[in-house]
Write a structure and sequence with these properties.
Number of helices: 24
Largest sheet: 8 strands, mixed, barrel
Strand order of the largest sheet: 19-20-22-23-24-25-26-27
Distance between the termini: 100 Å
Number of strands: 27
Strand content: 15-25%
Radius of gyration: 65 Å
Length: 771
């Protein structure tokens, strides 16, 4: 595997050695070839110089011999008298004296007079030869005579006028080429191209091949392919124009090839040996490096399994590896310590040290045993948020620690365990048999918890709601028991009880509420008619006309059953679904107001919103978009809030209401009189309308106290600049009293129940017809 570190190191080292070897071989090849080429050229140049000296010496010898001959008086006399015997004798003797191969005596017309050779060999007219040689006076030339190559010189015989010409020459043979080879070390070839005469120190080429091409193209098979045998250089010799003669200097490259191949094979062998050494060395290096890494991998795998105390006992390592191994062990110890901390933190509450909810669920599942009954007690601290707000979170945290300490004292004494399952909620579980009487044990726990606390020298009294579940009476699964004990503590809180013992069926009711909540989400999303709006008219007491309505939502489930608005609105507020529900209501009501406008019906519609709606950042912008979408005047929309909503979100609520008033929307304070709104706060609220709670209106014609309260509230509202609406009008007497008290609007069953839009339109026609 190439991904293996050992293989990678080996490949790297071998690759470097191989690359170095290849580069060395290529460099050697190039430099040797270059050197060899330069050496051959140098040797040829030396041979060329030697040849020139040789040629000059031969030429000087010829010139001297010719001059001696032509200057001899007896010879000139013999030539003048045409004494053939004397001429022949002189030519022969003189040729023997200088070792000349050729001596000819020619008349002025180029005809042969005498020769030292057989005259039959020179039957041709020598006039053209003589004429061309005369142009190079006292200079030798190479000519072919009778199929033989000669180096000749032509001199005149003068007495004192020229009476004949003497032609003296040396025959150029293969021996001459061999002699030159011995002087230069180069192969020498004399080639008369036009006459196909070749005198060479080499093996003569076949007669059918052109000699120069033959020597230039001759190849030899070597280890790396076919290569030229000779490196040649052509040198032109002085010769007749129509019969050129050259000398071909040839450097035989065969020995160079042989030496190069031998040296190259030696280098290849050395490279292979170097490569083997590199492989062995790199393997040892890789092994020394990767073996400790493998050991560290073993340690890491043990760490991964959680075995942080594992120590690898190996051979002695280098100081760096030993340091790395020590670092690994230190890392394992640190990881082990941090893992224990993380594991503890993942299972425990950081503030109290109790189990968290998930850990409690796991512990409970392990501890439950049908042979042993257990009691689960959920404890909720009431008003802890107000302590955080008024005294600060530090005091709140210390209260939680103090409560946890008392729970621990009570529960652990009984062999129980405990958890913090929420911001201000605890859960403790202990064997039921540890308490002699079940309810007295719970009461003792409550008494211990409710005793006064001293936190930073502050006396603090805490109140608690407690939910109780018993195992296996109320369930056998840990998840069911925890869900039911939380249902019990929630019931204790909602019903203002200190202790609530879980009752059979409460869980089913809770699950029913969850099902109802899912159906409500679906009903809002699908808008399939399950949810619809009804409108209850408000009578303007001054003009006796209905000019306002209150929008009230209704829900009829798919199975035909009705759900009370108090129930599903409360569910929506608890689950955070109220924002989506209110958005649906706002869109539906504003669309209906727009539809009424098109029919010529001008009604101001009131929409009930919650504290969550006012706190929602997108409520204002969504309302503005919806008004623009349906082209409805903001003054036709009234936002109704209860006193409770205003108190819980007073600061943010006032800002939100001021922003709503800025766009022209009316603001109404619902259920006035039953809340905790002080007169000082009332004057600060940016409202337009007070809506008197129906508890003061239902028996208004029968209760003088209610009349005093209503009359004073109407007077106060008018003095503060508010209009006043009375809801819950169910009798004619009540309506008459409200008119006398100058109430602005009346609303109730005496006038009409909440009606769907189309029924309200019919009711308005009938009401206007009667009145």
């Amino acid at each position: 595997m190439t991904n293996n570190l050992r293989n990678r190191i080996t490949i790297l080292c071998v690759g470097l050695v191989l690359l170095t070897t290849v580069v060395s071989l290529l460099s050697f090849w190039w430099s040797t070839s270059k050197f060899q080429e330069e050496k051959v050229n140098q040797d040829i140049s030396v041979a060329q110089n030697v040849y020139k000296q040789y040629l000059n010496s031969k030429e000087n010898l010829l010139l001297t011999a010719a001059k001696v001959l032509t200057s001899d008086f007896g010879f000139k006399q013999a030539v003048a008298t045409r004494d053939a015997a004397t001429i022949s004798s002189v030519l022969y003797n003189h040729s023997q004296r200088i070792n000349a191969d050729l001596m000819l005596l020619l008349d002025l017309s180029g005809q042969l007079i005498s020769t030292n050779d057989d005259e039959d060999n020179f039957t041709d007219n020598l006039q053209p030869l003589m004429s061309e040689l005369l142009t190079n006076a006292e200079r030798s030339s190479f000519v072919v005579l009778n199929g033989q190559l000669y180096q000749v010189i032509l001199l005149p015989v003068k007495t004192p006028r020229t009476i004949a010409y003497s032609l003296v020459g040396f025959k150029v043979t293969s021996n001459v080429a061999s002699e030159l080879k011995s002087l230069t070390g180069m192969e020498v070839s004399f080639i008369a191209i036009a006459d196909s005469v070749v005198k060479t120190s080499l093996v003569a080429p076949p007669a059918n091949l052109q000699p120069v091409n033959y020597f230039n193209s001759k190849t030899t098979s070597r280890f790396f392919g076919d290569y030229l045998v000779y490196k040649n250089r052509e040198i032109e010799l002085p010769a007749l124009q129509a019969h050129p003669v050259i000398i071909l200097l040839s450097a035989d490259l065969t020995q160079s090839y042989r030496d190069f191949e031998q040296l190259f094979i030696t280098l290849i062998i050395l490279a292979i040996l170097t490569l083997i050494v590199g492989v062995v060395t790199s393997s040892l290096l890789a092994n020394n490096l990767t073996t400790p890494l493998s050991q560290l991998a073993v340690v890491a795998k043990q760490f991964a399994k959680g075995n942080y105390n594992f120590e690898f006992k190996g051979s002695k390592q280098s100081s760096e590896i030993a340091t790395l191994m020590d670092a690994f062990h230190n890392m394992g110890s640190d990881i082990n310590e941090r893992e224990q901390q993380i594991s503890y933190q993942a299972r425990h509450d950081a503030l109290t040290g109790f189990y968290n909810r998930s850990a409690m669920l796991e512990m409970l599942a392990k501890q439950l045993n049908k042979s042993t009954a257990h009691t689960l007690v959920a404890i909720d601290i009431k008003g802890l948020r107000h302590i955080n707000d008024k005294l600060g979170p530090r005091i709140g945290d210390k209260c939680l620690k103090a409560v946890a300490h008392r729970i621990r004292e009570f529960s652990e004494e009984l062999g129980g365990f405990h958890a913090r399952i929420g911001g201000d909620e605890f859960l403790t579980v202990f064997p039921a048999g540890a308490v002699s009487e079940f309810k007295r044990g719970i009461i003792a726990l409550m008494a211990q918890l409710q005793a006064g606390y001293t936190i930073q020298n502050l006396k603090i009294n805490l109140r608690f709601s407690v939910g109780v579940v018993q195992y296996p009476l109320h369930g056998e699964q840990a998840e069911d028991l925890i869900r039911r004990v939380l249902i019990a503590v929630e019931s204790a809180t909602s019903h203002h009880q200190n202790i609530h013992y879980y009752q059979q069926g409460e869980d089913e009711a809770h699950l029913e509420r969850l099902v109802m909540l899912d159906e409500l989400k679906q009903a809002i999303s699908d808008d399939d008619g399950q949810l619809f709006m009804t409108y209850q008219p408000k009578l303007n007491m001054k003009i006796q006309k209905v000019d306002k309505v209150e929008s009230l939502i209704r829900w009829q489930r798919k199975d035909g059953s009705w759900v009370s608005p108090e129930v599903f609105i409360d569910l929506a507020e608890q689950s955070g679904l109220i924002v989506e529900l209110t958005a649906w209501v706002v869109n539906t009501v504003i669309a209906q107001v727009a539809a009424w406008q098109q029919k010529g019906i001008h009604l101001q519609a009131a929409i009930n919103v919650s504290a969550q709606d006012i706190a929602f950042a997108g409520f204002h912008s969504s309302l503005v978009r919806t008004l623009k979408k349906h082209k409805v005047n903001p003054a036709l929309i009234t936002i109704e809030l209860t006193e409770r909503d205003m108190i819980e979100n007073e600061e943010k609520g006032i800002i939100a209401l001021e922003n709503l008033k800025a766009i022209g929307v009316k603001i109404s304070l619902d259920d006035y009189g039953v809340g905790q709104t002080s007169l000082g706060r009332l004057k600060m609220l940016p409202i337009d309308e007070l809506k008197l709670d129906k508890c003061f209106i239902l028996k208004l014609d029968e209760s003088q106290k209610d009349q005093f309260i209503v009359q004073s509230s109407i007077t106060l509202g008018h003095q503060l600049g508010f209009s006043v609406v009375a809801e819950g009008v169910e009798t004619a007497g009540t309506l008459t009293l409200l008119k006398q008290m100058q109430c602005d609007h009346a609303q109730g069953y005496y006038l009409s129940r909440p009606l769907k839009a189309e029924l309200l339109e019919q009711w308005l026609e009938e009401y206007d017809g009667v009145h």
